[in-house]
Specification:
By secondary structure, the protein is of the alpha/beta class. The protein is 31% helix and 19% strand. Residues 30-307 form the Peptidase M14 domain.
């Protein structure tokens, strides 16, 4: 059993107000540098990409956070678009570094075949604090909606709207970690005034398909490629992963648009959310980064073959 590390705030059974959210934010501490670990790497890729600033977040005493995407240098409006996103949840490290690894080592294989847009760190404040939420205690990955109250989600939403109908594939890179059960799900229950119900953490890589637009062959192609890098998660004894029915090995489904999830913002035919487990004794951080990059490569390869 994973020991809970979240320190309770507020009154049990009562949703947080502004005071509790302020107390929660005051506990968060910067633990790493978005500028050093992400922005500096973007600037090493200028031969193949343009670095596009698509927004900026002003978080007062915590500073200002410019939001960047890599845009293929030889953009051709006649070609379809592929969107890669990482760091929607800032603490999910391999989402960020897997997206950067794909841009560095794999993206060149798609030049002249499609237009690449890569937003590697959607939530830089949370990246620095190794957290799931933004400073307002909002989860960006439940807020990809029009006029979103979450600045991270709104900025990416606004960037993507002119590309709706042009994207053929969108892959959103995530992790499921022990801290989900130790900290983030207990915090979510406290924030919303609900009881915390412990869950399980899948050991391995899995995908979240769109229940409104299922693409099983697409998901299978990604898992087949990733299985050469790291293990695919098995279901729990009840046939579920994180409480959702398994529809194929290492695949579950969510209604992406209905839930305001990032993978639902483009209207693309081929969409998925990846999940790796960096706390597994069978996987290293480097392996998780590579699994993410390989997943992106497989997703784009499949989508192009179907065009």
């Amino acid at each position: 059993m994973i020991a809970q590390t979240f320190q309770p705030l507020g009154t049990p059974g009562v949703p947080w107000g502004d005071a509790e959210k302020s107390q929660w934010r005051a506990r968060q501490r910067k633990q790493r540098s978005y500028a050093d670990e992400v922005v500096n790497r973007l600037n090493t890729m200028l031969e193949s990409f343009k670095v596009l600033q698509y927004g900026e977040l002003d978080y007062g005493d915590d500073g200002r956070y410019p939001l960047y995407a890599l845009r293929g240098k030889y953009w051709d409006d006649a070609l379809p678009v592929a969107l890669v996103t990482g760091g929607v949840h800032g603490y999910e490290t391999s989402g960020v570094h897997g997206a950067l690894l794909f841009a560095q080592d794999y993206a060149g294989g798609f030049e002249g075949r499609l237009n690449l847009l890569i937003a590697p760190c959607v939530s830089p404040w949370a990246y620095e604090r190794i957290h799931r939420w933004n400073p307002q205690a909002l989860d960006p990955n439940r807020n990809f909606v029009a006029n979103s109250p979450c600045g991270e989600s709104k900025a990416l939403w606004d960037l993507i709207q002119p590309l709706r109908g042009k994207c053929i594939v969108h892959i959103d890179l995530h992790e499921t970690t022990d801290s989900d059960e130790a900290e983030f799900r207990p915090a979510l229950a406290a924030r919303d005034g609900k009881p915390y119900e412990p869950g399980t953490i899948p050991d391995g890589f899995y995908l979240v398909d769109d229940s409104a637009n299922p693409q099983p062959a697409f998901q299978d192609a990604i898992n087949l490629a990733v299985a050469k890098v790291t293990h695919i998660a098995m279901s729990d004894m009840d046939g579920t992963i994180i409480g959702s029915p398994v529809v194929a090995e290492g695949v579950i489904r969510y209604p992406l648009v209905e839930l305001g999830l990032c993978a639902g913002i483009t209207g693309a035919r081929y969409t998925t959310t990846t999940e790796v487990y960096p706390d597994s004794p069978r996987a290293s951080p480097a392996q998780c980064n590579l699994a993410q990059a390989v997943a992106v490569n497989a997703a784009l390869t499949f989508a192009l073959a179907m065009e």
